[in-house]
Each structure stands twice: as structure tokens, then as C-alpha cells.
Amino acid sequence: MSRRARVGGDYLVSRTAPDEVVCPEDMGEAERLLMRTIQEFADREVTPAADEIDRRNIDVVRPLFEKAAELGLFMAEVPDTHGGLGLSLLAVAGMAEARSYLGGLASTVFAHQGVGTLPLVHFGTPEQIDRYLPSLMAGERMAAFALTEPGSGSDAINIRTSAVLNETGTHYVVNGAKQWITNAGWADLFVLFAKVDGVAFSAFLLERDTPGLVVGEAERLMGQPGSCVCPLQLSDVEIPVDRLLGEVGKGHRVALCTLNLGRMKMAANCAGLTKKILATTTAYAVERRQFGRPIAEFGLIERKLAQMAAASWAAEAVAYRTAGLVYDATEGQRAGGDLSLDETLRVQAEFAMECALAKVIGTETYHGMADEALQVYGGNGYSEDYPAARWYRDSRITRIYEGTSEICRLSMAKTLFRRIAEGRLPLLAAATGATSGPPPRGDHLDALVQQAHGLKQVFLDVFRETWSALDESARLAPEGQQYLGGLADIALEIFRAESTTLRAAKLAPTTREADRVLHEALSRLTLHQATARIRRAANEVLGALLTGDRLRDAAAGVTAALPAPVGLVETRHLVVRELVARRGILSTPPSHASATADATPG
């Protein structure tokens, strides 16, 4: 079945068939080969150098960076018209997942490849591309993305760095400061954001040896010690006018184009990291004995391992479904010829909501699993001699960069309201006509798919009440953020549960019975975990908007629409039995997570 064109956010008002979603199992041999190549490079050369990478030893980091270039990592997303590989978004998602094997080198690679090079690819003039792109793809130059400032993090559009055209019209004179710039200590080229005349948000290409640019000392980071993150100070820095990237006043296009796909890739990267944590923690729980038995056999540890397994499988399903949405839309547009920049931006913006929620799910799953893994390790988890402490520290930043979890949630909710106003998403009509009904019963996979679809009823009910109670100014005011956050939580949990059950349903006809039973069990655990979060978020929003009989009726409707947590103890037993038998590896992956590998983020 050919997958139909989707509209961003329409999963909330329409039914998705299993064969419409993209799964990691859809990857072909070319994508699998790329992932294996990255893993083999990591095992052979990166992992043995882990300590030196953590010390930010540039004499070790730079040769590894150049070897990553030899593998084609920095050419992967560059169109073949520019000398790149022009890989599909599905391959890019696989590459982002495999980047989890690069340990402390991963953040350096991502900052260069994703946010450092792609703005030039998308917005550079032919002269700029000829000047910089070949050396960036070859690893001869390293790039960085300089947007954040001491006074503007999430509020990036209100940066204070200024650029003023000089009297002769040959250079922009730039003054200001940047902070938290990954790769800054090593970068040869910066994608720098400043406001022309203090007003027009714009992007520039800035070379490192430009007079007036001072790179500060590397920050002392809580985690990811191999990442070279530094502040920048710009004092009368002169940037030639031909280094303007894009148009004056259109810097937001450069930033948003980079961040939307960056969030999708981060979701895939975090999915890979959760798989490594799961495999390593499972091996530890089997090996570690207390009271004469492996701790994996104790019920509360078993519960943790089972929920970790479900969370990891769901994060992977979400990441690849999101990549598939953008991929299908891009390929559909490309059927008529090469995409223009405006068409590319439009396709990416269409699924900005899904990219944001995938980023939230991926990063929060990664950090949550790191926390649970540390608990499984017990006192050993608090020791730097074991990997859990590293996972815990390294995972925390992912909920902050590339858009904080809070900003992503607000972006998701505001996108829905905006599309209603534009007449592009019939959410209001669906909510107005929504009626509550009992969820389908049964334990089989088809019933789980129906139950996941039925969760949308709760979102529509809560959305209807929010729309009725709050006008636009109240919804968009800072005080309204708790309502928007609640709606976003329900929306992302629906996407998580549906993505997981649809993945299982899609794979069922072609997988062996043991895999089908495992996938169904993982889907059931994900569905009921999502249900618990939806119930909490829905009742919180309704409790703030309604009183008396209306509140009681609305709360009863939420309860009636949500499936009961039936059979979860037995389901966890099944999952952990399979998890132990498979050494912590749930699926037939393009590249395998070693049960002894360390897991460090990208």
C-alpha cells in the first residue's frame, strides 16, 4: 500500500493504518550497511580513545573527526548536486541512531554535520558553497552553530548581537556575545546569528581567524565532557557582505530549518542510546546476584526492566514514524522534480509538531531510562566505575538543547491552534462532534490498535473544553502555558501509544510467533503507561476549567474512554523472559547494541 500524504497533526483526527507508518524494519541493506559501518568505526577506533576524547584532546579528536569524514558522515545529507551522498531521510534517521555508538565524539560530529553544515547547504550562495562545503564534507574544516546568547536561550529571536553595515558597504561590523556554542573551541567556521541594525534577525558565515572574535575557555559541563562548548565574544568583527547566509531579516528560516530536522534526528539518536542502556542493564541484572538469585528475577527489578524495554521500543517507533512522515512528504513533492528551498522548508515546517514531540519523547525516555538503570545498578550505579552514572549525567542535557521540553510542548500546542485558525486541521469540528464511548475490549493486537486510536477521544474532549473556556489571548499568555502543556502531553502520549501499536501490527504478518507476542506485550505496556499519563493530564486541565456536575461528568468521560490496566504483571513477566533470552536486544536491528558497550550521547 502506498502511504498517503499526511498533514502535520492530523493523526489526532484521523485513523492511520499500520502499513502507513515507517518503522526501522523498513530500512534496506544500504541503510543497514551505513549503520554497521558507523558501529564498526566506533568499536575499532572511537571506544578505545574514550578517555582522551573526554579530556578534549584535540590531537585525538581531530584525526577521529577526519576519519568520520572518510566514512561519508559529513556528505550524507548533502545533495549529490553538491558532491554529497544525498541520502534519504530514512537513512539519515538510521545514521542518527548509529551515532549513539560514537560516545564522546558524537556531539562534535552532530554539531558539525547537522547544525554546522546544513545551513550552508540549504541557504548558501554558489560562491559560499564552493568556498566552504568541500572542506566541511572532507573534515578539513569543523563547523559550529552560534545562536544562543547569555540573555537569550529559548527566546532566541531576541538576540542582542548586532551587525551594522560599514560606510563603504563592504562589511558588516558585528558586536555581541554568544554562549553554549558546541565545537566553538575547535571550529574553523561559525554559522553566526545577529540582528542587522539591531532589528533584522540574520545569519552569517564567520571564519575563526577573523580579528575581533575571541573564543572563551571551554565550559565545565555536568555531562558529555568530550563536547567542546565555549562562549564567544565579538568586538567590531568585520564580516564581508558576501558572507551573509540567506537574506537580511530571514535568519529565522535558517534557524528553524536546522532545528526541525535536528529534533527528528535527536529522537533517533536517543532511541539508539536507550537500546544500549537496555542491553547493558539487562546483562547487569542477570549477572548481579542478591539473596542467592539474579536481581532480574525479583519482581520490582523485573518491572523496571519491562517498562524500560517498552519505553525504548516506543521511542524507536516514534522516531522512525516521524522520519517517515517527513520522508513521504519530501518524496511526494520530489516526484515532480527537485525541491526548491521554499518547498523543502514548507515540508519540514508541516511536521514541526511531530519533530518536536518526537524530540520530547526521545530525550525524556533516554533520561528516564538512565535514571531507572542507575536504580537497577544500586550503589554501583553511583560509582564512576560503572556506566550508569555516565548515562545519568550525559542524558540530562538532551532535554534542554535543540529546544527545551517546555518550548517543544508549547510549540506543539500553538501549532494546533494556528492550523485551526488557518482552516488546515479540522480539529475543532472533530472536537465539537466528539462523543465519549467505551474503549474496545480484548488483549489481542487489533484491540490494542483500537484502544490507542480511542485515546484521541480524550484529547478531543479536553481540547473542546479548553477552546470554549479560553480565548486566544488567554491561551497564548504565559499564564495559559499550563493548559497548553497539558494538551501537548495528551497529544504526545497518543502519538507514542499509536506509533507503538501500529509498528507491532505492521510487523505481525511477517514475524515469527515469539516476536509477535513480544511486540504485542511491549505495545500493551506502552499503551497503559500512556493511558496513565493521559488520565493525569486530562483531569488536571479539566479540573482547572470546570466545576460541579460538569467536572464530574467530564472526569467520568475520561475514565470511560481509557482502557483499564489489565494483565500488566503477567505482561511484564513475558517481556523480561524474552529480554533476558535475547540479551537485552528486542528487535532485529540494522546494528546491534553490545551488552557491554558504554552508552554516551550525541
Question: Layout of helices and strands, plus pairs?
Answer:
Elements: H1 29-46, H2 50-54, H3 58-70, H4 89-98, H5 106-123, H6 126-137, E1 143-146, E2 162-165, E3 171-182, E4 189-196, E5 200-207, E6 213-215, E7 229-240, E8 244-245, H7 251-287, E9 289-290, E10 293-294, H8 299-334, H9 341-350, H10 352-377, H11 387-396, H12 405-421, H13 427-432, H14 445-454, H15 456-469, H16 472-476, H17 481-507, H18 513-545, H19 548-561, H20 568-581
Parallel strand pairs: 1-4, 2-4
Antiparallel strand pairs: 2-3, 3-7, 4-5, 5-8, 6-7, 9-10
Helix pairs in contact: 1-4, 4-7, 5-6, 5-7, 7-8, 7-10, 8-9, 8-10, 8-17, 8-18, 8-20, 10-11, 10-12, 10-17, 12-17, 14-17, 14-18, 15-17, 15-18, 17-18, 18-19, 18-20
Can you walk me through this structure?
Among the domains are: 10-142, Butyryl-Coa Dehydrogenase, subunit A, domain 1 (Orthogonal Bundle), CATH 1.10.540.10; 144-250, Butyryl-CoA Dehydrogenase, subunit A, domain 2 (Beta Barrel); 409-587, Butyryl-CoA Dehydrogenase, subunit A, domain 3 (Up-down Bundle), CATH 1.20.140.10. Helix 8 crosses helix 18, helix 10 (352-377) crosses helix 17 (481-507) and helix 18 (513-545) packs across helix 20 (568-581). The protein is built from 20 helices and 10 strands. The two termini are 35 Å apart. It has helices at 29-46, 50-54, 58-70, 89-98, 106-123, 126-137, 251-287, 299-334, 341-350, 352-377, 387-396, 405-421, 427-432, 445-454, 456-469, 472-476, 481-507, 513-545, 548-561, 568-581; strands at residues 143-146, 162-165, 171-182, 189-196, 200-207, 213-215, 229-240, 244-245, 289-290, 293-294. The strands form 2 sheets. Strands 1, 2, 3, 4, 5, 6, 7 and 8 form an 8-stranded mixed β-sheet that branches. Strands 9-10 form a two-stranded antiparallel ribbon.
